[in-house]
Specification:
It is a single chain. By secondary structure, this protein is of the alpha+beta class. It has eight helices and four strands. A four-stranded mixed beta sheet has the order 3-2-1-4. Strand 2 and strand 3 form a beta hairpin. Helix 3 packs across helix 4. The longest helix has about 40 residues.
Amino acid sequence: MVTARKSTAADKAANAPEQGGAESAVDVRVLKKYPNRRLYDTQTSSYITLADVKKMVLVGQAFEVRDAKTAEDLTRSILLQIILEEETGGVPMFSTNALAQIIRFYGHAMQGVMGDYLERNVQTFGEMQSKFAEQSKGLAFSPESWAQFLGAQSPMLQGWMGGYAEQSKNLFTQMQEQMQEQMKEQLQKASTLFPGIPGMPGFPPKK
């Protein structure tokens, strides 16, 4: 009979994928959250902070946060905490008006559509940023130089952003019009299938 040997710390270190390697980029890193709000990294067997989780996001490390007792997925709540810290501690990305507009979509019939719309736009901007960084590789630009360069290009970027926003607005308006037309067609079909039902087009409401 073969007896399984208990894994030692040396075994874990030897079997753990190196950070930054191809294997760690594919594997999902599991973080456990305990009732005392501390986060435990199962890959490094150590406690980490919210700043460490932010670094994982920045380098593209796949991870998920699980409740240590219930195994509930807490990844979204941790990401929201990071966003909250960024919005309150530095230069905010969202204006008060933008946040109010987003809140108004919760519980609205268009909530799902708006979520997809925002996700696609953020993904598009992320892909553009990656392409820009790839094309600028090898250029001896310091962070200060990049800030000066982007500052000089600000009018052009703002104009481009304004045009992009206007195109998005037009597409969103067209989508709303198409949805209204489809609803009218559905109501007309229903009125022919179920004539005489109160509330249907062409039939007076029930008194």
